[in-house]
Amino acid sequence: MWNYPQSKTEQTMDSVEAVAAELAKHEAICAERWKTIFNKIEDIEEESDNRFNRIDEKTTRIESILIACAGFLLVSLSGVIITMITVH
Prior knowledge:
Elements: H1 8-87
């Protein structure tokens, strides 16, 4: 019925409770955001690990091919040199 003016302490308590409620809401929102960020970081780390493993496998394959080519060239050139030496 009658609206009596609130005292200063009642006004302060209301504003403190409002700030506490806003702070709790803010903390919940931030916690969700951080959770999402950490999950995305974990996904990125897993993806980069897979990518680096594939690069390592490809590098090993290229090294094997290069060693085989170098061996083939060495044997071929040795054969050419030996042929040139024995012909003269």
